[in-house]
Amino acid sequence: MARKLGEQLVSEGVLKPDMLARALERQKATGQKLGECLVRLGLDETPVLRVLAQEFKTRFVSTAKLSQAKIEPSLLEKIPVRLAEGFDFVPLRMDEAGVLYVAIAEPQRQRAIEEIARTAGVKQVLPFVAVRRSIRAAIRKHYYADAQAFEHMPDDESCPHCGAPVSKDDFQCERCELLLVRSPDELQKRDNVSLVRALIAPPDKKVTTERPVHPLMDKTRASGYAHDPERSKLVPIITGGLLSIVEKPLHPFEAYVLSFVDGRTPVSDIAKVTSLADVELHAIFESLCEREITQLTTPPEKPARAPRRAPEVKNAKPAAKAVSTSAPAEAPASAQAPASAKSAPPQPPVATPAPAPVTDNAADGVIQRAVQLERSGKIEEAIAMLDQGISKLPQPAPLYNRLGMILLNQRKDYARASALFQKAADLDPDNSAYMMNLYTVLSLTADATNPGKKVKRR
User: Would you place residue 155 in the very low, low, confident or very high pLDDT band (cuts 50, 70, 90)?
Assistant: First the structure.
């Protein structure tokens, strides 16, 4: 549709080839629709909207008309602002037959139209195509009583919820954690990254899967350490609770290291897995220990092996019966040694003793148990453990929203992500980002589960 739109406008004489080339470059760089790029480059929006309306077999609403539109307050009360922001549309009017007329940036998103109708409780939705910036200005004007909304149009390259800068490849807004994808095709296949790492790390625009950048050496104070073989035998454990870890400013690399701390693996082995030198790893653990996030413990002693039982010899003659005496039997001479020859028992390395195993009722052990389950390949159990731990927090909504993002991005788990977004929205109805995420994932679910009804994106 992009080239068809551009070629048609060129053939009609309203667009020059050099501007089309610039618009295509802008589209490639920003991920915006070609029509939006053309308007931003200065082309009159009317011919663009006219061609789009013909393609979608509908009508269009210009920015001038949308700025003068009068929308009944009763209709605004019927259509939640979170729904309007989530799908980039604004209601215009509703007729007596129950037909809702809306101005929307992407009228070809049939699943979004169906979700609007279901949520609004109307029989039919008739979409009119409009410029996205104009729609967002109309939302600001009518829902937020911003009289200057059309004089100060919102930027297309910003988050529709909080206004933070975003780019075309961003999965979520780094500031408000709004879901930015609009199609299942934008959910790329990702590596099996630790759920714990994603949950406790600061929100990332792209939810990267690769190893994060190592923190600066002056921040880890690695230069103050000398190699100590005994320290490398110690086993780190996670002692901080879920809430305390999330609230503390973790570096992404610290979250990466913590995703390998299962309470059983010594520092030396973690160093091999993370490709870090022992001195670097000890510097990170020293910082984590100071903040009461981790603790270094002595490894549990392995139980002594029982002596092997001599194999039975078939047809062997029974041994002669020992003569019982009242005196205790003397030890063999080889086993006896003078008291002066006995050496003192070896001293274990100085460290905190390993704590007792965490019980299922202890909320502070959620992170440690989740890491253990992940390291054992029990991902579903790890998800259930994190969900259970989040439910015990005093303000669980932000982490429900974040866990929903992780499951959607890493596992394309639409059902569980929807349930988590719903929990977040129910617990904190004043945060519109949670409800917008819910509406978006419902539309993504419909697109993903009804591929035969999908309309090709333009």
Answer: low
Two tokens at 447? 């697109």
Which residue's structure tokens are 């603790």? 295
Rounded Cα gap, residues 22 and 41, in angstroms: 8
Query: Could you give the CA distance from residue 109 to residue 114 in angstroms, rounded to a whole number?
Result: 9
**In DSSP terms, which residues pair with 89 in a beta bridge?**
104
The architecture of the domain spanning 1-144 is 2-Layer Sandwich (3.30)
Q: Which two tokens stand for residue 88?
A: 């980039």
For the chain, domain boundaries: 1-144, 166-207, 231-297, 363-450
> Model-level pTM?
0.69
In 10 A of CB 329, how many CB atoms? 7
Q: Would you state the CATH architecture of domain 363-450?
A: Alpha Horseshoe (1.25)
pLDDT digits (tens, 9 = 90+) for 280-314: 888 889 889 999 999 999 887 665 565 565 555 55
What sections of 129-277 are H helices per DSSP? 132-143, 195-200, 217-220, 229-232, 242-247, 252-258, 267-274
- The rounded distance, in Å, linking the Cα atoms of 265 and 457 is 49
| Tokens coding 320 | 């002669």
Q: Which CATH number fits domain 231-297: 1.10.10, 1.10.620, 1.10.287, 2.40.128?
A: 1.10.10
Q: State whether residue 129 is helix, strand or coil.
A: strand
CB 55 within 8 A of CB 455: no
**How many C-beta atoms surround the C-beta of residue 412 within 10 A?**
15
Hey, how many other C-beta atoms are within 10 angstroms of the C-beta on 207?
Answer: 19
The predicted-structure confidence for 354-386, as pLDDT tens digits, reads as follows 444 433 334 468 999 999 999 999 999 999 999
Measured CA distances, 431 to 215, 238, 243, 437, 438 (Å)? 33, 31, 20, 11, 12
What kind and span of H or E run contains 78? helix 73-78
Mean pLDDT, rounded, for 451-458: 45
Task: Give me the percent of the chain exceeding a pLDDT of 70.
Answer: 77
Tokens of 51: 């061609």
